[in-house]
Records
---
Amino acid sequence: MTKISLVSIITLSLLCSIVPNVLAFAVSSQYYDTNPLYMQPGETVETFFTLQNLAGDRNVTIMARITYGEKIITLLDESDIYNVPLGEKKKVNFKITIPSDTKIGDKFPITIMFTTVTTQQENPIAIGGSIGKGFDVIIGKPSDFIEVPQEKNNYLWIYIIVAVIILFIIILFIKKNKQKQTKIFVGKKTSRIKKF
């Protein structure tokens, strides 16, 4: 056997033994990139992420770690380690407290990193998966940030003005054509009368 094929076989064997140890889990939330959490200065809100072990083949142990927003977010559960049995879901409860000196429009991104935890007894070689889940906390009410689309209103006025101008041109055109027809008709009548 050549050296390259021996290395390939060992690498393939190693990968095959590691792949079953990769754990599958997911994290969901009622807040996300396009659906931020709106809060007021000095307000505190309790909410949660949901850990899901629906696609794996065994129970998973997941560690939660705050990576963004440490000043405003606090984990509420007794431990930052969560055991999620196969086919089940588990809540990760946390509290967000906004300082009272914030201003409307301030934005606080928050993220919690969830990482699978394995012990040496479970798997001597294991690949742990990590998922970062987060969203923005925006100070104010959603109505504070709704913009009235000015372009649509401007286009409406442009359409009205163009319609009025077109109507005005049509009316002028009709009047001029009537005047020409009347002059031609009157001119022909007059000429006939003169001929007699």
---
Amino acid sequence: MNNDIRVSVGFWGHPKTKKLAKSLKIEENSAAGSLVYLWVRVAQQNPKGVLNGWSEDDIAEAARWEGDSLEFCTVLLKLKWLDWDDKKQCFKIHNWRKNQPYIFDSEKRIKKAQKAANARWNQSQCSEHASSNAPTVPTIPTVPTIPTQKNPPKSPKGGLWRKLRKKDLTPKEYMQKWGNRK
């Protein structure tokens, strides 16, 4: 599913947007908003911009148009916001491929990305684990050995460690003997 659409910066003041508002007798922002709602729904459900199986009511609902759906679609067709595809016998968004190329080609992009990911994944695996997505685990556990020091390293500012070093106490012994004194 697509997460965003492209909207031209000139869309809000475009003559077609103004004509849509005037034809429907609504404010320009409402007309533009209805188109954006429609485009978002189309991007989510029909990335090719072809509204196969959509009725005028479906288009009006997607655009959140509360008036007469037939009038709304007629105006969209007249102003070339919508087209009628005679071959497929359905509506389609005018110039969808040109205006929304990222959405239009999303299925192709997803397949290409999946193919590339599969190629990378298959390249990096040995034949023994190729059918599994589990990482390989060493059979012999490797635990690093950490040397312990009775005298900790010298602190640049001195402080607690200098006091501990002078008395040759471990931190635990120091706390037992001296508590939380400063």
---
Amino acid sequence: MLTSHAYSLLLLSCHFTPPHHTRRYTTAPASIHYYTVEWPAADLSWSDFRGKVLGATDPNEAEAGSARRSILEQWESLGLPGKPNTGDNGVHASASPFEALAERVNWLGQDLERDVYGRGLLGAGVTAATLGAWSQDPAVVYGGKAQSIFDLLEDLDADACLEKAADISATQKAAAL
């Protein structure tokens, strides 16, 4: 169980794009600034962190006091080149503990076996090969339909995300037999 641990995610000052689409954020003068954010899992759910602390993806719909609403209200004084919108909303946070792992692997070169959540998924029976493939957000068949793995695991807390990922992996293994 991971509930006794603090969450850890990759918080980027940009919107997530797969590594092969990073030119927009990595070609000078643009840059990526990232932070690893942790908080006690018992005090704040993953969904509330994303929805209430960061705010809705569309900054116009974000709660007052959230990061995205604050960026929207202060974009000029912050020196941003344009008003934040759904695509460029000032900040990105991983949509789930699994997506956070995928982003650490994809963006930072983190090794699955050295990552706490990676070890948890490996220990739950999800293979390194599966995690590598899933880190590119493929469509996986689950519940009778093909869906984005990131979408399937979105806003789940750490334990629920791990359990569902293990179930998806087991379902895929059974279907391959």
